Fold:
Amino acid sequence: MAAIDSHKKAKALKPTSRRPAKELCSECGLCDTHYIHYVKDACAFLTQHIAELEEETHDRSRNLDSEDEWYFGVHQSMTAARKTEPIAGAQWTGIVSSIAIEMLNRGMVEGVVCVQNTEEDRFQPKPIIARTPEEILAARVNKPTLSPNLSVLEQIEQSGMKRLLVIGVGCQIQALRTVEKQLGLEKLYVLGTPCVDNVTRAGLQKFLDTTSRSPSTVVSYEFMQDFRVHFKHEDGSTETVPFFGLKTNQLKDVFAPSCMSCFDYVNSLADLVVGYMGAPFGWQWLVVRNDRGQEMLDLMQDQIETKPVMSQGDRKEAVQQSIPAYDKGVTLPMWAAKLMGVVIERIGPKGLEYARFSIDSHFTRNYLYVKRNYPEKLEAHVPEYAKRIVSQYKLPEK
Structure:
């Protein structure tokens, strides 16, 4: 009864422009609704409680005796996959869009929370509740900017929907899981994507302007397993830029403070995660976390080819070297960056080891960021699994 009364009071509140997390706000959209009433517990940057939410969502928290679970969270299985008939215009082969369409067509859900873009700007996110396959397809391709996905929560409640699929990233999903019981749903499915280094729209423009040969024609981009950023352009061409050739000295401050303080790269609270970093180049990495996730993946069995995940190489020396390089904003000449990229692609980490490389690199960087900028939050904010990962490396004293 107390929970019901609390929610009635929350609905009576009018959302304001307040952002309780202040500069650490990831603009997930929760505070644009009356669910701001729950923000103290829901916001990943005010209260970090992934272990507790894992227990509620997956019926257990991650096993810290298993290094795979330190890194990749609670899971039943991991596999590499790609669609046999890719969706035209999808960022990769279209697995995320295909799952959402199948769930809608089969009546498993009545709507899908996803992100289209505005008519004026292909990179400006516009969260919607899709009710048709066409609306889902219009949301294909990642929007690499902060996106208020949860701003549609009130619409969900008002719609009377009882079965819903939500597609989102870690900070959004932590907030969603915290208020899940207030939504009045009979069934909630969550399809997550790994997420790291989001930016504001202005920050994205700076990244494009300093990195791409043709910023205005970029349709999508991704940091890939071959240690290059891959840009797709309007004419169908692909441009690649080696990680080591990025203008780090100009880009160090472009990422959102929330992303610099995040330790949920792998979207721990989703039912199913679809990304790329744990799979070979050209394939997607699928992480099934619970039975709902398996139910979603089962829909794709006749549309995808799969193979086991693999792991090769040793990430640790590369990660250790990257810590001071990032700290100092080291930027290599392009010829040297390309040469280093070729060497590391041949002998560097691959598959799950590449995923660990990426997680280690970001967690060490983010740990230092929180330690330097929010030292009072460090102990409570960094999850135990992240502390174990960071402890493998020597960090600067200051």
In short: The CA atoms of residues 97 and 220 lie 16 Å apart.
